[in-house]
């Protein structure tokens, strides 16, 4: 079993930038670098209050309304899509308070590592407090420039965050870059494929709070253009789940 110090040092060895250990997570940005918060939604994700209620109330309720899928069903689907039984290094991008990092890490084999990655200090502080475990470590950084070398992880995911992040397609390409050949990628993000009146309402609301609504082809095309294989997509209400494999 990997102890806490070993997990931190193992994660540090995966980084291609220097990192300081702060509040239990590794920080490659430093105290002077604040998360970008130009929109209401991004400000919310950097709020200590939202970080405190996100895992138990905010996310389960909002995502069930948006998709009709429970958190437990999401976890099972994610674990199956990422082939976690054979994975040893998992990267959870925009992990928030670690609400998916920890349960996915529990499905990894002994000696494996799940790295939760986010830019929000309140979210990562909560992740360390609530969702640490023998296979988890958390890193603070900017997902537009993931601080890991090429082909570092054999499973990479981002659940419920790409519509919040600046330059989401750049983030997705970074996720593919750090994925090993044969590795699996999975994302859960917004979906603008409803009938016109509903679609208009979703787009209008999303713009007001600073979210991006993605069409059905956006990430499927990105994955295909990047050379991924076995690209699959599931859509439920206002969300889409897209997976792929990096060829050997």
Automatic annotation (TrEMBL):
GO annotation (BP), single = methylation
Superkingdom of the source? Bacteria
- What is the protein name given in its UniProt record? SAM-dependent methyltransferase
Organism of this sequence? Mycobacterium gordonae
The UniProt GO MF terms for this protein read: S-adenosylmethionine-dependent methyltransferase activity
Instruction: Please state every residue range assigned to the domain named Methyltransferase type.
Output: 91-187
Task: Show the CDD domains listed in the entry.
Answer: AdoMet_MTases (cd02440)
Keywords in alphabetical order: Methyltransferase, Transferase
């Amino acid at each position: 079993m990997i102890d806490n110090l070993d997990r931190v040092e193992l994660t540090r060895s995966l980084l291609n930038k220097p990192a300081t250990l702060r509040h239990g997570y590794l920080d490659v940005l430093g105290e002077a670098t604040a998360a970008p918060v130009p929109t209401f939604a991004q400000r919310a994700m950097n709020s200590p209050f939202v970080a405190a209620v996100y895992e138990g109330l905010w996310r389960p309720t909002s995502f069930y309304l948006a998709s009709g899928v429970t958190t437990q069903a999401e976890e099972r689907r994610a674990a199956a899509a990422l082939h976690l039984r054979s994975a040893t290094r998992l990267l959870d991008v925009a992990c928030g308070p670690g609400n998916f990092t920890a349960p996915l890490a529990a499905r990894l084999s002994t000696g494996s590592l799940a790295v939760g990655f986010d830019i929000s200090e309140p979210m990562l502080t909560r992740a360390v407090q609530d969702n640490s475990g023998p296979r988890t470590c958390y890193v603070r950084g900017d997902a537009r420039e993931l601080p890991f070398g090429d082909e570092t992880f054999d499973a990479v995911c981002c659940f419920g965050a790409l519509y919040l992040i600046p330059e989401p397609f750049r983030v997705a390409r970074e996720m593919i870059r750090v994925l090993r050949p044969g590795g699996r990628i999975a994302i859960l993000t917004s979906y603008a494929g409803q009938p016109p009146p509903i679609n208009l309402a979703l787009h209008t609301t999303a713009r007001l709070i600073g979210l991006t609504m993605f069409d059905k082809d956006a990430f499927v095309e990105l994955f295909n253009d990047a050379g991924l294989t076995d690209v699959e997509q599931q859509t439920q209400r206002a969300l889409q789940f897209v997976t792929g494999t990096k060829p050997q």
